Amino acid sequence: MSLVPQLASIDDLLKGRCGEVAAGDVLAFNGVSTVDTFIQGATKSGISHVAILMRGQPGGPLLVLEATGLGVTLTPLAESLQKYKDDHTCFYLPLAPRSRARVVVDKLAAYYDKNAFDRYNYDGVVEAGIYDLDHPLFKSFLHAFHGRSLFSRLARWWYRLLGRMSRVWAEVIARHPNTRRLFCSQLVTEVLQTVEVVEVPPRAHLVVPVEVCWFDIYAGAFQLNGPQLLSDPFRWGDAPAAEADHAPRP
Fold first, then answer.
1. DSSP character at residue 96
2. Does position 133 have pLDDT exceeding 50, yes or no?
3. Residue 31 maps to which CATH number?
4. How many domains does the chain have?
5. What is the pLDDT of residues 213-228, one digit of tens each?
6. Where does residue 23 fall: left (phi above 0), alpha (psi -120 to 50 degrees), or beta otherwise?
7. Which of 60, 159, 203, 210 has its CA 20 to 30 A from that of 14?
8. 84 and 195 share a domain?
9. Helix, strand, coil % in the chain, rounded to nearest 5
């Protein structure tokens, strides 16, 4: 499954010309920074960041819930898109009607209240799971920071033996704090699990940003800025996602 975006604009979205925008809808971003290009290159995709929409209270304005170097934050929708538009191509992925009907606004708000301004949503790097050897981007990170030298091989063996991968991730995050945005996809996946819109394997931290776009829960996609449609922005690696693993609840 691959989404085919339609060209729209941020103004179209804010004025309702992309249809009714609702809590639970997803935003995805293609970026040009060092961190963005690394994530996109490592995942062989056009997406480096994802976020999800919610309301702070029933009938309140739409807000963007996301995980970045600042932690788990809420930003008014218009302000968030304005912030991203200069150095990111923004995509809006509205939930399909069957998925949108399952969203409970109060559950979204409760998730934020529990995790607001946390250190990327979970108490520190270790609990976030980003030290895990099986994370899809671990090998890419290790190669980027240590290369293929003898030290790299010894470091990999040593960290595997001691189970202390957090040291590697601590170094990565110390050099590039915004790498926490990698795990924006963990936050969005967990929110979608919380509101029972999507079923994925329980280890949400293994979901990379573009994989969120492959969940079979959307009505389509709108590219909100840029002079023309990006070519195949939702491509992902050499092998497609296993759709059965990400099927929406009936």
1. P
2. no
3. 3.90.1720
4. 2
5. 999 999 999 999 999 9
6. beta
7. 210
8. yes
9. 40, 20, 40
Average pLDDT over residues 166-181: 51
Are 231 and 114 members of one domain?
yes
6 contacts 149 by C-beta, under 8 angstroms: no
Quote the CA–CA distance of 204 and 1 in Å, as a whole number. Answer: 20
* 158 plus 207 within the same structural domain: no
- CA–CA dist 149, 30 (Å, integer): 32
**Residue 48 shares a structural domain with residue 137:** no
The reply to whether 73 and 102 lie within a common domain is yes
CA distance 18 to 32: 26
Same domain, 71 and 132: no
Q: Is 129's pLDDT higher than 50?
A: no
**Opening angle at CA 101, ends 97 and 103, nearest 5:** 120
Neighbours of 97 (CB within 10 A): 8
> What is the residue range of 165's domain?
128-174
Query: What are the φ and ψ backbone dihedral angles of 106, each rounded to 5 degrees?
Result: -65, -35
Which tokens hold the place of 62?
């739409």
